[in-house]
């Protein structure tokens, strides 16, 4: 019994250490919400991931779509997946794009996270992901706002790690961007803290009995 408890404690302490390491090194997932209640009709949501030829390889993973998403208008050949199930865009060979019909008048939202070692790879070329709303003729932006949101993937330069620079819409209150908490290891971490406290209480009782 005691050995089993010690094994569980060791596992949970390892999980706590991994959780701390994950918090330091992992890139965040972002939730993007676009308020189109001030507009009506149909539009095109363009998702574009661009990079110079020398940029570190990276991917943009989008899922958790919510809102009135319609059919695909156009997409580059290497885009994987579909909306709303989830899509992956890469930055190789100039990058990928996906243009999707949407119905305005409500909220559109999705989660986005980036993969690749761009933040820890020495480089001078960044990558840029942008989400933009166009009219269906692709002749202008909805609300004349430019990109709804842009994510610049900054590389490591002169030993200084890079990261992600987020720029929200120029049109006030249209786009909301917030980091998504990473809950996957939290239950184990909390369990570890509980078991550690229990173990210390039992040790204290044993000392008092002696």
UniProtKB/TrEMBL annotation:
It comes from Pseudoduganella dura. Residues 1-26 form the signal peptide. The keyword Signal applies. Keywords: Signal. The keyword Transmembrane helix does not apply. Residues 179-202 form the Ice-binding protein C-terminal domain. This is PEP-CTERM sorting domain-containing protein. Pfam families: PEP-CTERM. InterPro entries: Ice-binding_C (IPR013424). It comes from the Bacteria.
